[in-house]
């Protein structure tokens, strides 16, 4: 697939995350796809498609009003799409969650093979993990 098609795949992926469309989020990954959340938080690590499928719906339990991602910039080359974005949400604890991200996706045949998430891990610890550390 070309660069424009890969960008379109990632835009649909973020539209699905904004809509809480768990089925589309999971279907966006290749069978051998994985997600990497950087850092040393309780939710950091590398997750295969099966783990993503188990966790995807739980995100919306932690954010019952949903999570809205705003894409600020997209840059793409070959099989990679880089996305600068910001999230807006209210955690179940009542705390606002507003993080800034750099995502790097690698795609193959219209599916995500690797999705790396770089963001403020201290904000994850404070809001999502309630201050708990590994």
UniProtKB/TrEMBL annotation:
SUPFAM superfamilies registered for this protein in UniProt: NTF2-like
Ranges for domain SnoaL-like: 11-114
PANTHER family with a match to the protein in the record: BLR2505 PROTEIN (PTHR41252)
Gene3D superfamilies for the chain: 3.10.450.50
The protein's name: SnoaL-like domain-containing protein
Origin organism lineage: Bacteria, Pseudomonadati, Pseudomonadota, Alphaproteobacteria, Sphingomonadales
Any coiled-coil regions, as ranges: none
Pfam families: SnoaL_2
